[in-house]
Amino acid sequence: MLKNKNILNLNNQLNLEKYSSNLYLQMSAWCEIENFKNASIFFKKNSKEELEHMEKIFNYLCDINILPIINSNIKIKTNFNSLLDVFKYAYKNEIKNTYNINLISDFSFKNKDFKTFHFLSWYILKQKDEEKILKTILENLKFFNYNKKNMLMFDNLFLSKYI
């Protein structure tokens, strides 16, 4: 049986994944309106992935007879100053997710909840990949001098390989 703290931890992560899904969907809409078509596709794809991550935790909790608690009052950022701002915010969000997953993994291991520890190993590897992609995108954005015209070129040339 999971300790109460780990139940809270997993429910918190479930809601962080939901938040990420909603945030990336909002980012997709912002990018679409700003004519960054590939960035819009990128964030819509990531929104779906984050929802899958949420559902994976949801199913895990149900499988071990723990009621998942979904927070419906999650406020997300809706406006951004630039494409750079969008990707910086997404990167910070992934760093936060990684931090929380590592905390839950550490707690699980220390409390001999090896089932949860093993379950979270997939998330640890996934977070490494997600952070790497966003960091690469941010590093490459530097070469486009951050103005709107160059950002459109970045969207067309570089982001197409991530969708």
Summarize the structure.
The protein has 163 residues and is mostly helical.
Topology:
Blueprint lengths: L3 H30 L3 H27 L19 H28 L3 H28 L6 H10 L6
Helix pairs in contact: 1-2, 1-3, 3-4
Structural account:
The chain is mainly α. The chain is 75% helix and 0% strand. Helix 1 packs antiparallel against helix 2 and helix 3 runs antiparallel to helix 4. The longest helix is centred in the N-terminal third of the chain and has 30 residues. The radius of gyration is 17 Å and the shape is elongated.
The largest sheet, given as strand count, sense and whether it forms a barrel, is: none
Average predicted confidence as pLDDT: 91
Give the count of helical stretches.
Answer: 5
Distance between the termini: 40 Å
N to C succession of SSEs: HHHHH
As a whole number of angstroms, the C-alpha radius of gyration is 17 Å
**Stretches with pLDDT under 50, minimum 5 residues:** none
What structural category characterises the helix and strand content?
Answer: mainly alpha
DSSP summary, beta strand count: 0
State the share of residues found in helices, binned by percent. over 70%
Which term fits the overall shape? elongated
Q: What share of the residues does DSSP label as strand, in percent?
A: under 5%
